[in-house]
């Protein structure tokens, strides 16, 4: 069917979506053993779908996943025994989100070198910024939140 017949403007071409595009969602228990399991699931999904993402971007994305799942396990498990993981792949970017039912909106702490923890969200923001992506926290209709990060397939040229 020509584009005009489908309601497109005359002369417009229909752009087919890429075969690797899509959205996936799964849940995991809010326990420490979920951190490596979710990381491996995300890595395997990207490979299985044939997402053309640069190796260093995958490394950064998997570190982000580890930090977000760890934060949900450590800080939200009391009110959220399960977490939700969302992976969305667009034409030139990949977005991961980790949701829980805890209403607290996390904030990136400043680097305190005397502490051994507490810098996970700061690390997520740094990796995302270096890759030329974006990250944020959104509240869910059920009163929880999703912390997400979106990265382009390859880092911007500096």
From TrEMBL:
SUPFAM superfamilies: ATPase domain of HSP90 chaperone/DNA topoisomerase II/histidine kinase (SSF55874)
Ranges that cross the membrane: none
Domain of life, source organism: Bacteria
UniProt keyword annotations, A-Z: ATP-binding, Kinase, Nucleotide-binding, Serine/threonine-protein kinase, Transferase
Pfam families named among the record's database cross-references: HATPase_c_2
Keyword set includes tRNA-binding: no
Gene3D superfamilies noted in UniProt: Histidine kinase-like ATPase, C-terminal domain
InterPro entries: Anti-sigma-factor_SerPK, HATPase_C_sf, HATPase_dom
Entry keyword annotation includes ATP-binding: yes
Segments forming domain Histidine kinase/HSP90-like ATPase: 31-146
Example GO molecular function: ATP binding
Protein name from the UniProt record: ATP-binding protein
Record organism: Streptantibioticus ferralitis
Source species taxonomy: Bacteria, Bacillati, Actinomycetota, Actinomycetes, Kitasatosporales
């Amino acid at each position: 069917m020509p584009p005009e017949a489908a309601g497109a403007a005359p002369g417009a071409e229909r752009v087919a979506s890429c075969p690797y595009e899509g959205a996936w969602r799964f849940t995991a228990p809010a326990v420490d053993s979920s951190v490596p399991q979710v990381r491996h699931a995300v890595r395997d999904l990207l490979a299985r779908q044939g997402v053309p993402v640069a190796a260093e971007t995958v490394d950064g994305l998997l570190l982000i996943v580890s930090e977000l799942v760890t934060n949900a396990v450590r800080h939200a498990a009391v009110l959220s025994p399960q977490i939700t993981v969302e992976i969305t792949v667009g034409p030139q970017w990949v977005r991961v989100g980790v949701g829980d039912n805890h209403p607290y909106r996390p904030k990136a702490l400043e680097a305190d070198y005397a502490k051994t923890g507490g810098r996970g969200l700061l690390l997520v923001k740094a990796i995302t910024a270096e890759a030329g992506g974006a990250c944020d926290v959104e509240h869910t209709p059920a009163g929880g939140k999703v912390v997400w990060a979106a990265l382009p397939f390859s880092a911007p040229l500096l």
